[in-house]
Write a structure and sequence with these properties.
Elements lengths: L19 H6 L5 H4 L4 H6 L28 H10 L13 H4 L6 H39 L9 E4 L8 H6 L8 E4 L8 H9 L8 H15 L8 H9 L8 H11 L5 H6 L5 H18 L5 H11 L11 H15 L16 H25 L40 H25 L9 H12 L13 H31 L9 H25 L15 H10 L5 H21 L4 H17 L19 H5 L11 H5 L3 E3 L5 E3 L3 H7 L7 H6 L2
Helix pairs in contact: 9-11, 11-13, 11-14, 14-15, 15-16, 16-17, 17-18, 17-19, 19-20, 19-21, 20-21, 20-22, 21-22, 22-23
């Protein structure tokens, strides 16, 4: 009998690390990594047999050495979890009286053996990983040299002179290897555990056919013309063939999430959702689940999905998701080299279609970066000095309107798609100007712009290309997007002029020209009034339903100007300004039925107005004069609503007084000074924390 201090004997033989078939062929066996069956037997569809070695002093156990072949790698993983004593790589049996201390549990010995197997498996896995890594490097080098070993599928960007393939330039005769080329996409397969998790999350269960039809139609009509981040003909081909399940699920849930904003109420009700927001949350949750757990390796798909998920707002993460997802998309675009001119690479393997599509993706990233930088008061991520990609053309938005067989997908798109493509190019041009505006007004104190610089930028704004709002024959969609481009322009103009009005008032910019300060103030005021005219047009033509997640923030600059004017002038001018501000609040009320961001802006401005007019109650479609008919005698003496329980006497007893129109004018507070600062109103989240 073994003594109590006897330690387990160390195995001196080499355990089996290959199945019989791989040994006979003298090839590497994946047994230690994948378990039974190995990858080779799985591919050849043969039985995976592992020969165990007989230990000295061990009784022969009458068990078959051939293992039943499982279907897939995950089956082997499951069997290991179910029976730890019988791992995929068999552990030789040893007598219990010689392998462990008397009284010690049996699993101590099994644990030691398992540790040896794991260590050996880890070593084998590291060797395999290094081989795969070298193979990937060879694929990149071969593609860069124009000698690809297999068909490239995804773009790869080598970077500038210090990039990973710069060493190959030394071996090149003309030192001009392409910086953009295609490399193979190595897809990974989900394990059974991951598939089960995703299945329980519902990502493999698509909505009903009618709901899918409605969302695809809504997406292509309302979203694609302004954010063309998918290839429309590919989506339509899958839809018409009834193979949506074969379309990229990450991309599908992402576009479904945005499309929910525009579907009829009957669609989400038939799907069992209580509201549009509830269905939107479910679509976003499934897209995010696929993004995090779907093993998607195509960076183009990840970029597309990130841009679409950038429209998500939630108070659970302080409404930071648009900034996060858009930043992710910009990073992916720069990794792929979409910011550089692909034509300079002279790579014939990259087609004109791919170049147009990548151009669309990059400028969509740029568009979101500029307008989120304005709305959220955040720094710009994209520096145009780093980019030499060409400006987009209308043709870049139209290349996928034709199917491969020569037919069109016109039935899925607005009839005047050509006009919408021109509007999209105008938006990108305005976004470039907006970047110049934000850059110059956010300079540090020591590098303030001169008056000549300001006037030079003003001339660029005045030369902006805009749609003809009075063009006849446009569809309702085209009319909305025509007004939408103008809303972007007015928001940019207000941002520009209001800043210099403040700078001139504080004396931080030299205004030698007489009346310059008054001129910029009047132009900002005119742009704000023009914004109200555009909103009135959208309401009168019943076009508000076409508004997307990017529309509510465009109202903020005009509302800021109206709020500022409520503090100035006589009582009549203040009341007129308040009426203009209330009109914007009513439009935000309509938007907040769908968009969370509209609710946030509405709450912030309500608090700000109450600093000027204590007792002010936010107008609604149920109580405001704009929505509810009021008897003629009442309208003559109408005053803004006060808080319940307040009277004119109680208001007069406070720190404010009534003007001739019964308006309570409060003393100006630090909150109002902070809120009206031109840089803080767009810094939404800091303002939100103040209320």
């Amino acid at each position: 009998m073994a003594s109590t201090n006897q330690t387990p004997r160390t195995r001196r033989h080499r355990s089996a690390v290959a199945c019989r078939a791989c040994r006979q062929r003298k090839v590497r066996c994946s047994l230690t990594v994948t378990g039974v069956p190995c990858a080779g037997c799985t591919q050849d569809a043969i039985e995976c047999i592992v020969d165990t070695k007989q230990r000295k002093g061990t009784k022969k156990i009458d068990t078959p050495t051939s293992h039943r072949r499982h279907h897939g790698h995950s089956g082997a993983i499951d069997s290991n979890f179910a029976n730890p004593a019988a791992p995929a790589d068999p552990i030789p049996t040893r007598p219990t009286d010689q392998s462990r201390t008397p009284g010690a549990p049996l699993f101590d010995t099994q644990a030691r053996d398992t540790t040896r197997i794991v260590n050996r498996s880890t070593s084998e896995l590291e060797v395999n990983n290094m081989a795969d890594e070298e193979r990937n490097g060879l694929e990149i080098a071969s593609a860069a040299l124009g000698q690809p070993e297999s068909v490239g599928e995804i773009p790869f960007y080598t970077g500038e002179q210090t990039g990973p393939t710069s060493a190959l330039n030394i071996c090149s005769h003309d030192h001009s290897l392409p910086k953009h080329f295609l490399i193979p996409l190595h897809r990974t397969h989900l394990s059974d555990e991951d598939q089960d998790f995703l299945r329980r999350k519902g990502v493999f269960t698509l909505p009903s056919k009618s709901a899918c039809d409605s969302m695809i139609e809504a997406y292509l009509v309302h979203v694609h013309p302004i954010l063309p981040v998918i290839e429309a003909d590919v989506l339509v081909n899958h839809h018409q063939a009834g193979k949506l399940q074969d379309y990229n699920l990450l991309l599908l849930w992402s576009l479904f999430f945005v499309a929910v904003n525009f579907i009829p109420a009957t669609v989400y009700e038939q799907e069992g959702f209580a509201s549009r927001r509830a269905m939107k949350f479910t679509m976003y949750s499934r897209a995010k689940c696929m993004y995090n757990n779907g093993n998607e390796r195509n960076k183009v798909v990840l970029l597309q999905s990130s841009l679409l998920m950038g429209f998500w707002h939630s108070d659970m993460d302080e409404h930071a998701q648009p900034w996060y997802w858009t930043g992710t998309a910009v990073n992916l675009g720069q990794i792929l080299g979409l910011h550089r001119d692909i034509r300079a690479s002279n790579n014939l393997s990259i087609t004109d279609r791919q170049q147009s599509f990548w151009c669309r993706l990059w400028w969509s990233c740029f568009f979101r970066d500029r307008w989120l930088g304005l709305t959220l008061g955040r720094p710009l991520r994209i520096n145009l000095d780093d980019c030499d990609i060409r400006m987009p053309l209308a043709a870049d938005l139209l290349f996928d309107t034709m199917k491969s067989d020569g037919s069109t997908i016109a039935s899925y798109l607005p009839t005047d798609m050509n006009r919408l493509a021109e509007y999209w190019v105008m938006l990108i041009e305005l976004s470039c100007l907006l970047g110049n505006v934000l850059t110059i007004i956010r300079r540090p104190a020591g590098r303030k712009a001169s008056l000549d610089e300001v006037e030079g930028l003003e001339r660029q704004l005045q030369r902006s290309r805009l749609p003809n709002q009075y063009e006849v024959g446009l569809t309702r969609v085209a009319r909305f997007y025509s007004h939408h481009v103008h809303l972007h322009y007015q928001a940019m103009v207000i941002t520009f002029y209001r800043h210099w009005e403040v700078e001139a008032r504080e004396g931080t910019i030299s205004t030698a020209k007489e009346g310059w300060q008054q001129r910029v103030r009047l132009k900002a005021d005119a742009a704000a009034s023009r914004t109200n005219e555009l909103l009135d047009t959208l309401v009168q033509e019943e076009l508000l339903g076409f508004a997307g997640p990017m529309t509510p923030p465009l109202l903020v600059p005009a509302m800021q100007v109206h709020l500022h004017q409520c503090r100035l002038g006589d009582s009549l001018s203040r009341r007129i300004r308040l009426n203009k501000l209330e009109m914007c609040m009513l439009v935000l009320e309509e938007f907040q039925k769908t968009y969370t961001v509209a609710s946030i802006y509405r709450a912030i401005f309500t608090k700000a107005i109450q600093q000027i007019f204590p007792g002010y109650s936010t107008p609604t479609m149920r109580t405001s004069a704009a929505a509810t008919p009021i008897p003629e005698s009442d309208t003559e003496n109408h005053v803004p609503t006060m808080l319940e329980g307040e009277t004119l006497d109680t208001i007069n007893s406070g720190n404010y007084q009534l003007d001739n129109y019964g308006m309570a004018i409060a003393e100006e507070t630090d909150f109002m000074d902070f809120f009206m600062d031109e840089g803080s109103v767009f810094n939404l989240w800091q303002t939100w924390n103040q209320i």
